[in-house]
Amino acid sequence: xxxxxxxxxxxxxxxxxxxxxxxxxxxxxxxxxxxxxxxxxxxxxxxxxxxxxxxxxxxxxxxxxxxxxxxxxxxxxxxxxxxxxxxxxxxxxxxxxxxxxxxxxxxxxxxxxxxxxxxxxxxxxxxxxxxxxxxxxxxxxxxxxxxxxxxxxxxxxxxxxxxxxxxxxxxxxxxxxxxxxxxxxxxxxxxxxxxxxxxxxxxxxxxxxxxxxxxxxxxxxxxxxxxxxxxxxxxxxxxxxxxxxxxxxxxxxxxxxxxxxxxxxxxxxxxxxxxxxxxxxxxxxxxxxxxxxxxxxxxxxxxxxxxxxxxxxxxxxxx
Length: 319
Prior knowledge:
mainly alpha
């Protein structure tokens, strides 16, 4: 068995080591003020944030130590998933970093801070390690096989996984239709002056040229996202390379679910009149339904990816 496939045997120790290292780096940044790229939600920086992260991840290290020494408790997995969310918040910008590769779609992007990007990548790695540690601990606490959960769940997860994939596809339909309608010259849901959907200051020449022919590049990307969700739940997806599909599925889910939830909440607050600035020139329902739909897409994509991962994994040799 390779080290990769024996992950339950070392996931807890790996999460412990990672937490100690990441917390130490945050404390070092707070004390000596080196530029180590620590941030919260890709925005909050400074000594206060660094100290907060140092304390939080030091507590995570204590939790990992407890999980190694007391394997039968019920509550540590829930606390471990909370650490996963914290790691994703620390590494939020890394999940969107592939957008920097799409330079042909936009211009005037902010320069990439390599130190921050590396730090966020390390935080995402922490989310993976802590997720594995939580899963292995929960399975051991339940007395099931830490490698597969103790039973062949391929058929049990396939039906809800398929439904989640279809839900993810449906969640992007409003966005795709709206952006295409804007590209075709309609202004439904747009309250400002001029043509919606494309800002010449940031859109590339290629994007502007396609927009003149009624093609919105982001709508095309939404179609690609729909195809990804379908590949995860339809038989033809089984003929595609497994690891790239899993990487795209989990990355898309981790990036778009929290992003969409933020936009959905923001749109509801706009709709309720709790905030006045909101998104200029956009009707509240656009933010809630079209943009907020990314939350449902991300959650559905996560469930579909998990179903695909279970359905296509090799047979367990440990139970």
